[in-house]
């Protein structure tokens, strides 16, 4: 087993000692949490004015929703949300004997699931008075080959948008074929990890859509605002208010999100891992992850599993601001990291920047489905990701003889260069250009 920096650190200490976590490790920032935008469950679609994905503040997206290449500044209106569960860890690869030993030591088994590809996945409550760092050290010493981590949280990457924004004609911007002309009849199988979806929405009538939840029965289920908006962008009816990019595609949604006090929605590492593994088992062609959070060995493990299976992951870079550290899963090397731009090809002012950014797509004032009925403009890197997911799925359908890695390389190579010549930390390789004539879904090679 190749030990992560976290493993090397925790294995170097004894249970009676203390754990000094190196500064580069993101887990060092667990206690104070970090600034990140989250979608709140206030989408009431009731015809009133308070239906704007705001955060209880005076929606400050009244000004320009782009930022110049510099400087990197954290948005003043960002809400500080917890980075991880305060008293929980998550692990896979533990033997039943090790789990029993931990229970005897005062740990509480919150949930477990036997995953064929990863082994036993467990969520454990840490004994009172014991720090997360000490708990990680104890588990690592007990069973060094297991993967153990804090139960990190991941948040949808949605942002407020004005209710009266004009509907933008976005498909030509990314070179997408006109659905009305029947140019793209591809039927790929797309996996989506997101909140709940209103499957009864008029925009989604007739869609090949299945939604499954992966939260504990004691948790409050997520709302349907974010997931409905994302899914509508993919498979909205061709003649509806929100025609989808691939209306004939099959979509399987795995929902790991629960509602916290105050209305924000988050997925923890345990639920997120189960959701992704579920979609991998379905052998989807690509998985859309319009969410972001911290680095986590357990999440890194399931991302690596997706890579070995040849299933590409597309993820939003996040809305924590240009000065933010990279967010995950977008920052993992095998994940296609998507930033958001407006119709003037200016980067969204709250988009995370960095060397991991791969490609840009429209993500400002995206006219997509509201949670109950009708359409609303939405802004955030969450809504840029589906453009890339659809383009990748279409290319995979059109080129069944090509490996997913080759198709991803072709997709980034076809991007329209923006900003500094070549790849840069703001736009990646540039603006998505689909440039693909796609047919029915074919079997993936191998």
Quick recap of the structure?
By secondary structure, the chain is an alpha/beta fold. The protein has helices spanning 5-10, 96-104, 132-142, 225-235, 269-281, 297-309, 385-398, 404-413, and strands at residues 34-35, 80-81, 84-92, 108-115, 119-125, 147-156, 189-193, 208-213, 220-221, 250-255, 257-259, 265-268, 286-289, 291-293, 313-316, 335-341, 359-362, 366-369, 375-378. The chain is built from 8 helices and 19 strands.
Major sheet attributes? 8 strands, antiparallel
* Secondary structure: helix percent: 10-25%
Q: Say what oligomer this is.
A: single chain
Mean pLDDT: 80
> What is the 3D form?
globular
Structural class: alpha/beta
Rg, Cα atoms, Å: 21 Å
What is the terminal separation in angstroms? 27 Å
By DSSP, the count of extended strands is: 19
> Treating each run of at least 4 consecutive H or I residues as one helix, how many helices?
8
Strand content: 15-25%
* SSE order, one letter for each helix or strand: HEEEHEEHEEEEHEEEHEEHEEEEEHH
Low-confidence region ranges: 1-78, 160-168, 440-446
